[in-house]
Amino acid sequence: MLPQRINLIAYSTLAVIICYIDRVNISVAIIPMQEQFGWSDSQVGFIFSSFYLGYMLTMALGGYLSDKFGGKRVLGWGVVLWSIFTILTPLAAHNGFFALFFIRILMGIGEGVTFPAWHSLYARWIPFNERTRAIAFTNSGVSIGTIIGYIGTQMIILAMGWEWAFYIFGIVGLVWFIFWNRNVTSYPNEHKRISAEELAYIQENAPSSEPAKKIPLRQLLVNKPFLAIVAATFANNWSLFVFLSFLPKFIDNELGIELESSTFVILIIIPSIISVIALNAGGYLADSLIKGGLRVVKVRKILNSIGFFGSAICLFMIPFFESITMIMVLICITNLFTGAAAGGFGVNHADLGPKYTGSLVGISGSLAMIAAILSPIAAGFILELTNSWNLIFFICSSVLVFGGTYYLIFSSADKQFE
Q: What is the C-alpha to C-alpha distance for residues 371 and 302, in angstroms, rounded to an integer?
C-alpha cells in the first residue's frame, strides 16, 4: 500500500495537470476561434490576460483559506468552479468578445487557489527532505498538462470542432473532484487509512503541523527575502505565460507550421517533455545538494541563477536564427535551464514561514500575476504593431535577468515569519 502522502502528491499533480489543460486549451482553440469571430491580435491578448485577472484575485485568498481551514476543500471546490466555467466557454464565445472575456475571468478565479492550496497541503504532509522533489514533481504537471492540453485540443478540434475541447476537459475536472473528496484530508492526523509509522514520520519532519494564525501582512511587504520571491515569480510569469498563450500561434504563424500537421504536434510536445524531465531532475538535484551538506540558501541561489540567466541567454538568441530546428533547440534548452530553477524561488516559501506556506505562495503569486496579465497584452500589441516576435523575446530575456539578479542579492532560506 502506497504511503498516503504519495497519494496526496498524485492527486495534487493531477489537479495541476487538469488546471493547465483547461488553461492552455484556448491557446490552440484560439486559432480557429480567431478566424471564426474575426478578433484582432490585441483582442486575443486581452482574452488570454482576462484569465490571469481573475487568477490574481484569488491566489492570496486561496492561500489564507488553505492555511487556516485546510487545503483539501479549497483546492477541491476550486477545481469544480473552473471546470464549470470551462464547459461554459463555447457558449460565452458565441455570445461575443466581452462574454468570453468575463467567463475567462471567472475561470481564473477558480484556478487561482490551485498552487497556494497544494503548497499549503505539502507544508503539512511532506517531510523536509522530500519537499523539493515533491514540489518539482507536482510542478511538472504544468508541462504534462500543457502537452495534453495542446495536443488533445488539436485532436479534438480536427475530429469534433473547437467547442468540444472545452466540454470534454471540463468534465474531467468534475470526475477528479469525486476521487479527491473521498481520498484526501487536509492534515495527516485526519486521514483514516494512514499508518502510525507514516503519521509519526510526517509529524516529526514536515515543516508545519498546525493551522496558521493571522499572516503578518505589514511585515511581509517590507521583507526583502519575500520580495525576492515576488521578483523571481514576476520574471518567471512574464516569460511562462507569453509562451503558454502564444506558442501555438508562434508555431502556426511565425514558423509556418499549420495546426493540422503532424509537425505542429511534434514542435509543441518536445519542449514540454524536456520541461517535465528538467523539473524533476532539478528537484532531485536540490534535495541531493542539501542532503550532501550544502547550505539551503546556496542551493536556492545557485540553481535559481542557472535557471534564470541561462534561460535569458537562450531567449535573447532566438531572434538571430531563422532555422526552425535552431529555434526549437533554443526553446528546449531554455526549458532545461528552467528545470534547474526548481530548487530555487519556487520552493523558498516554506523556508521563510512553514505554517504560512499557502499564504506566502498566494500573496507572492498574486503580486507577480501582474506579469501574467500584462505580458499577453503586450505581446498582442507588439505583434499587431510590428508583426515581429523579436521584441517579445528581448523583453522576456530582460525581465528574467532582472528577476534572477534581485533574487540572487536578496533571497534567504532563514525563517522570517514565526
A: 24
The residue whose grid cell reads 473547437 is 162
Residue 305 burial class via C-beta count within 10 angstroms: exposed 0-12, middle 13-18, buried 19 and up: middle
pLDDT band at 67 (very low <50, low <70, confident <90, very high): confident
The set of cell numbers assigned to 36 is 471564426
Query: What residue spans of 318-412 are helical by DSSP H?
Result: 324-340, 349-352, 357-386, 390-410
Cα–Cα distances in Å, from 149 out to 122, 315, 372?
26, 24, 19
Query: Are 248 and 265 spatial neighbours (Cβ–Cβ below 8 Å)?
Result: no
Distance from C-alpha of 120 to C-alpha of 197, rounded to nearest angstrom: 22
Q: What is the DSSP string of 49-75?
A: HHHHHHHHHHHHHHHHHHHHH-HHHHH
Total-model pTM: 0.81
Yes or no: say if 25 and 169 are a contact pair by the CB < 8 Å rule: yes
Confidence of residue 209 (pLDDT cuts 50, 70, 90): low
